[in-house]
Amino acid sequence: MFPFNVPLFSGKELKYLKKAVDDRLLSGNGSFAKKCASFLEEKLGCAKALMTTSCTHSLEMASMLSDIKEGDEVIMPSYTFTSTANAFVLRGAKIVFIDIRKDTMNMDEKLVEGAITEKTKAIVPVHYGGVPCEMDEINEAAKKHNVTVIEDAAQALMSLYNGEPAGSLGDMACFSFHETKNFTCGEGGAIALNGKKYIERAEIIWEKGTDRSKFFRGEVDKYTWVDAGSSYLLSELNAAYLWAQFEIADKITAARKKSWEMYFKKLKPLEDKGLLRLPVVPGHCAHNGHMFYIMLPDPEARGNLIKYLREKNILAIFHYIPLHSSPAGKKFGRFHGNDANTTMCSRRIIRLPLFYGIKEKDIDFVVKNIKESMGRG
What class has domain 13-246? Predict the structure, then answer.
C-alpha cells in the first residue's frame, strides 16, 4: 500500500538521541528542548516558547492561561480535531462552533463577531492545512470585545499571513509535532506566548504548578507548589529527535511546497473540467506544504475515488467528522448560525499522500490513478 504519510527522518536524529542518552539528560527542558524553544522564538518572534508533550497539552495550557471557567464560551470552527475543543471543555466551557469558508476550509471570519456574547472568553482560529485564517478581522473582533485569541497552529509552522508567521498573530499559539506533521518527534507540541504577561504563569502551569523554573534561574532559593498545573514538559529524547529537523526547517518546508505544487499543476486540468476542486491559498498567505487535498462534487464521488485508489494500493483519507454533529459536540457545544459549508465540505474532501521525500514519480502514480478513476487517464 502506497502510504498516506511517512514520518520524517532527516538523518541526524539518531546522533542527537545518542548524545542525549550519553549525557544522561532525558527529562524535560534539557539542552535540545531549549534549542527547539529558541528556534520557535526566533521564527515566530514570540515572547516565550515552551515545548510540550503534545499540541493537546499546549491547548490545555492556553485554556488555563485564558482563565477559562465553568460557563464561559469559546468560539472555534466545527471542522477541527477534538483536541481543539477538549482543552476548553475540560475547564467547563461551552463550545460555540461556527461555519467554515468553502475556499480555505478555515473558520469564516465574518461570522466571528456575531457569535460573541457576554460569556465569550476566547476565540480559537484553526489554520487548516497550513493556510492561515483571516487574522486581521478575527483580532479586530476580539479586541473590540476584550476576548483572547488562541491560534491552533498545529498544522501551520512556517506558514505566513501578510508576511507574519502563523503562531505570532494571536495572544498565544499551539503547535503539534505529531508524526503526521511537517516536523515530528512522534508526539510533541509547543505553546508560543505572544505577550510577556503570560510567561510567569505559563512556566508554573508547565512545571506541575510549581515555581521550579524560577528556582533553576536562581530567582528563588527553593521551589514550591503555587498554582494548578501538570506535567507538560517534552522529554529530552523527543526534543533531540525534533531538533534534527528544526536545523533544516527551511529545506523541509521547500521540499513539501514543491511536492504540493506538483500535485496542483498535474491536477489542474481536472479542476478546469469541473471534475474536482483544488486547494485555495489567498494571495496574502504563504502555506507550508502541510497537506494536499481535493474536493469532489459529492460524497458518492469521494467514496468511489477512495475505493478506486485503495484498489490500486494508494492510501488516501478524509477527516474530520464535524464536531458539532458528534455526541460530545452536541453535549458540550452548540452551532451558531447556519452550517452552510462545514458538513458539505467534510463529506467531499480527500487528502492525498504528501510527505518529505515523496518522489515526483509517486505523485505521478497518484495523479494517474485519479485521472483513470474519472475516465480521463
Answer: alpha beta
